[in-house]
């Protein structure tokens, strides 16, 4: 995903999304604020409307965040009396997932929501669905061609890095020769590079801060513990740590405890429940986490429903739902953790 | 050097080696030549680490860290060494570690505290090993296929149990074992367990009938059978042993990471096999040493440690790791041939 589109999407995301309640909560203010255009297009709301069957092809939930994606989609679909969710068994296997999507196409579902195991590899089947007249909501991992989806909604990896860098920058801006360490995710993934790029770009605004070390882990608790304990050994003093992922953060926090270190502040990533709890308790180094909200799956269902019913999004002057929605990577710290607690995933 | 131990000799309970002299001396001499080359590789790494990061590499904390990180995969490698010496392979070790660790960290198991977690991990590990052993020894399946099936099934079951979630350990006595306060004379308890497993493994291989039978089965299974060894039962025991080691490793990993996750033990099978091979174990069976395998694992962990201390990028790490593995095997080969 090119970063310039992310930035554009960021505007949409910030405007349209708040804690996952994209369409649900907007009822009162539209008449008084936004009656400039002739509001011919109906706007989606909670009231039962035309029946919509949504096909959902999600990932294999072998990671807390992916599991939360599936849960969010299913929970949100249950909320609507007019939505039937046809969901396939989650899969990490490209060929299997293509088969699943084709099955959903054959079943003639009204709208498709697809989180591809590999965006590029699933592009063709996305195109096929669109050609068959089934609008596709592409969730998070983006297809190679914009023709393969009607609407994309996903997270902002660059923005995660940016938010984390800005938060740390503000905390350390008065400190001379501040040192920062980065525990990255899986380096084989493009998203890891984007997160690091955003982080580096944010730190450029703070010349007093220097990134002294970066090591990549594998998004797992085990790798987080292992890599963090080595980082702690390598860097006897630093002021802040950004860890890309809260799951590997469980391991990283364990390593920090084992090393008996508490001389720096830590920022996490993604938004796991355990991270929120640690931030709320405020008894360790973890002071904040930057979101990559799994609620985007619930929003994808909202968007798919609106598409199926031919409605637009409330709170926006556009008649149609946007083609590109990037979720904002908000910083969750002690001040606002209570608000985000219900979205935390295990 | 690939000469298999004569099966008849191996079957005799109190054997005198055919090449004469006391068993102690012959063992120690052979042990020295092979091991020295590995120690040389390790020493070279230590020098590299010491030169590049003199402040952090050689201090006590780091030595403790390297040994702790060696412990989990080290215990797995000891079991793997036995299996490979017998001419088999166990591809399921990582999956067994994952399954044992998530089973042992379920809420139900944690209710029974320390003992409940340890017991479950060991039993699950042995259970998987038993299934492997039965399939291979009595079901006539090729070890590669049987353990590959266990790899898939074990990972699947682990995923099903956790539902993709990380299971946090709440039992303090388990968590405390991984903290500095629990060190005994400066040695982390995990390292002591690893040392214990190594010593037991060494004795089992070099000083017991079980060990001689293992070598005999790996050298020539038919000859071993003719010499009166129950080859099938021996194979069953060996996979059971590997499963037991995985169970112990799973417990150590729980202590280390304070949690159970279905991604635990990722690629352990490759690391354990590679460490055993670097340590001089023949993939075709019939020869291998515990000391060599343990040094092989230590070499791996030390490499990783040096990489991290020098803040190398992931790509560079992987290339360098490949090169060092090749170098270690070449050095090992050369010295082995000249002995």
Please give a structural write-up.
- The complex is a heterodimer of chains A (346) and B (339).
- With 346 residues, chain A is of the alpha/beta class.
- Chain A folds into 2 domains: 184 residues, Response regulator (Rossmann fold, 3-Layer(aba) Sandwich); 135 residues, 3-Layer(aba) Sandwich (Rossmann fold).
- Helices cover 41% and strands 17% of the residues of chain A.
- In chain A, the strands form 2 sheets. In chain A, strands 2-1-3-4-5-11 form a 6-stranded parallel sheet, with helices on both faces. Chain A has a 6-stranded mixed sheet with strand order 7-6-8-9-10-12, with helices on both faces.
- In chain A, β8, α9 and β9 form a beta-alpha-beta unit.
- Chain A is elongated and about 60 Å long.
- The N terminus of chain B is likely disordered.
- With 339 residues, chain B is mostly helical.
- Chain B has one domain: ABC transporter involved in vitamin B12 uptake, BtuC, CATH 1.10.3470.
- The longest helix of chain B has 30 residues.
- Chain A: Pfam families: Peripla_BP_4.
- Chain A: Keywords: Signal.
- Chain A: InterPro entries: Peripla_BP_I (IPR028082), SBP_2_dom (IPR025997), TAT_signal (IPR006311).
CATH class of chain B: Mainly Alpha
Number of domain modules of chain A? 2
- The spatial strand order of the largest sheet of chain B comes to 1-2
Shape of chain A: elongated
Total count of domains of chain B = 1
Number of strands of chain A: 12
Binned, the helix content of chain A reads 40-55%
Strand content of the residues of chain B, in percent? under 5%
- State the low-pLDDT regions of chain A, or none: 1-39
Annotate the secondary structure layout:
The complex is a heterodimer of chains A (346) and B (339).
Chain A: H1 3-16, H2 30-33, E1 52-57, H3 64-79, E2 83-87, H4 94-106, E3 111-114, H5 123-131, E4 136-139, E5 151-154, H6 157-172, E6 178-184, H7 190-203, E7 209-216, H8 221-234, E8 240-243, H9 246-259, E9 265-270, H10 273-281, E10 286-291, H11 296-309, E11 324-326, E12 331-333, H12 337-340
Parallel strand pairs in A: 1-2, 1-3, 3-4, 4-5, 5-11, 6-7, 6-8, 8-9, 9-10
Antiparallel strand pairs in A: 10-12
Helix pairs in contact in A: 3-11, 6-7, 8-9
Chain B: H1 7-11, H2 23-52, H3 60-85, H4 93-104, H5 107-110, H6 113-138, H7 143-162, E1 167-168, H8 172-176, H9 189-207, H10 209-219, H11 221-226, H12 231-257, E2 259-260, H13 268-278, H14 290-309, H15 314-338
Antiparallel strand pairs in B: 1-2
Helix pairs in contact in B: 2-14, 2-15, 3-9, 3-10, 3-12, 3-13, 3-14, 4-6, 4-7, 4-12, 6-7, 6-12, 9-10, 10-12, 13-14, 14-15
């Amino acid at each position: 995903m090119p970063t310039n589109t992310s930035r554009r999407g960021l505007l949409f995301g910030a405007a349209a999304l708040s804690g996952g309640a994209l369409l649900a909560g907007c009822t009162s203010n539209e008449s008084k604020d936004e009656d400039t255009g002739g509001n011919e297009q109906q706007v989606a709301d909670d009231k039962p409307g035309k029946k919509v069957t949504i096909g959902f092809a999600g990932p294999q939930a072998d990671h807390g965040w992916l599991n939360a994606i599936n849960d969010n989609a299913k929970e949100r679909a249950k909320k609507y009396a007019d939505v039937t969710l046809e969901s396939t068994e989650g899969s990490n296997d490209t060929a299997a997932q293509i088969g699943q999507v084709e099955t959903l196409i054959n079943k003639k579902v009204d709208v498709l929501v697809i989180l591809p195991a590999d965006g590029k590899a699933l592009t063709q089947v996305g195109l096929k669905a669109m050609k068959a007249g089934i609008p596709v909501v592409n969730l998070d991992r983006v297809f190679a061609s914009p023709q393969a989806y009607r609407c994309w909604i996903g997270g902002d990896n660059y923005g995660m890095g940016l938010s984390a860098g800005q938060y740390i920058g503000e905390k350390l801006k008065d400190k001379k020769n501040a040192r920062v360490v980065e525990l990255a995710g899986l380096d084989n993934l493009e998203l890891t590079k984007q997160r690091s790029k955003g982080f580096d770009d944010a730190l450029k605004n703070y010349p007093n801060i220097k990134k002294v070390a970066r090591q990549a882990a594998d998004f797992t608790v085990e790798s987080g513990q292992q890599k963090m304990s080595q980082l702690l050994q390598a860097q006897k003093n630093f002021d802040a740590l950004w860890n890309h992922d809260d799951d590997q953060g469980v391991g990283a926090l364990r390593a920090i405890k084992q090393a008996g270190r508490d001389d720096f502040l830590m920022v996490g990533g993604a938004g796991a429940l355990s991270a929120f709890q640690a931030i709320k308790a405020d008894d360790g180094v973890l002071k904040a986490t930057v979101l990559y909200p799994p609620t985007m799956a619930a929003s994808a269902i909202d968007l798919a429903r609106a598409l199926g019913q031919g409605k637009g999004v409330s709170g926006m002057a556009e008649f149609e739902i946007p083609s590109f929605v990037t979720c904002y990577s908000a910083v969750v710290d002690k001040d606002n953790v209570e608000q985000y607690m219900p979205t935390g995933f295990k | 050097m690939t000469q298999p131990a004569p099966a008849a000799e191996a079957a005799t309970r109190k054997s005198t080696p055919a090449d004469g002299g006391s068993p102690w001396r012959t063992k120690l001499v052979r042990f020295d030549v092979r091991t020295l080359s590995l120690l040389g590789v390790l020493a070279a790494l230590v020098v590299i680490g010491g030169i590049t990061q003199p402040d952090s590499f050689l201090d006590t904390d780091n030595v403790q860290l390297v040994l702790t990180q060696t412990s989990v995969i080290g215990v797995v490698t000891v079991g793997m060494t036995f299996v490979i010496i017998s001419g088999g392979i166990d591809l399921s070790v990582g999956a067994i570690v994952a399954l044992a660790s998530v089973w042992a960290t379920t809420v139900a198991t944690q209710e029974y505290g320390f003992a409940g977690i340890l017991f479950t991990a060991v039993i699950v590990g042995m259970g998987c090993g038993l299934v492997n052993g039965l399939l291979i020894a009595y079901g006539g399946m090729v070890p590669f296929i049987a353990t590959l099936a266990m790899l898939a099934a074990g990972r699947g079951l682990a995923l099903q149990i956790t539902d993709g979630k990380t299971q946090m350990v709440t039992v303090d006595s388990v968590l405390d074992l991984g903290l500095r306060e629990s060190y005994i004379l400066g040695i982390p308890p995990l390292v002591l367990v690893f040392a214990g497993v190594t010593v037991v493994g060494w004795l089992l291989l070099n000083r017991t009938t079980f060990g001689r039978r293992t070598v005999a089965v790996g050298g020539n299974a038919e000859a071993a059978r003719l010499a009166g060894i129950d080859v099938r039962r021996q194979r069953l025991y060996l996979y059971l042993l590997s499963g037991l080691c995985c169970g112990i490793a799973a417990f150590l990993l729980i202590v280390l990471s304070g949690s159970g996750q279905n991604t635990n033990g990722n690629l352990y099978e490759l690391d354990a096999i590679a460490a055993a091979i670097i340590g001089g174990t023949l993939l075709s069976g019939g020869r291998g040493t515990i000391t060599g395998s343990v040094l092989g694992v230590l070499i791996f962990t030390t490499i990783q440690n040096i990489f991290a201390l020098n803040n190398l990028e992931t790509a560079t790490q992987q290339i360098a790791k490949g090169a060092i593995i090749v170098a270690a095997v070449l050095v090992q080969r050369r010295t082995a041939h000249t002995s």
